[in-house]
Amino acid sequence: MTIQCVACKHFTLRGNCRSSIGMASQGYGICSFGTVGQFQSAIFPRNCAKFSPVEVEVKAKRLAWLDKQKAEFLKRIEKWN
Length: 81
Description:
alpha+beta, 2 helices, about 40% helix
């Protein structure tokens, strides 16, 4: 089954270090089954046997936050043009 990590209970965009915050704002998070320092794309389609879906509301909130981060990033880039 093809999934996206953003919809999994084992995935988080919240880390416990400064680099996690920066990576999350770029769309990368941490899988509880990953290794230390390994980040996964929140939206890249992948196959995962350990996938466990989150509630629809949680996925929607995560996607909304990611969309907001992307919009802010693009807005900052436009200032340079």
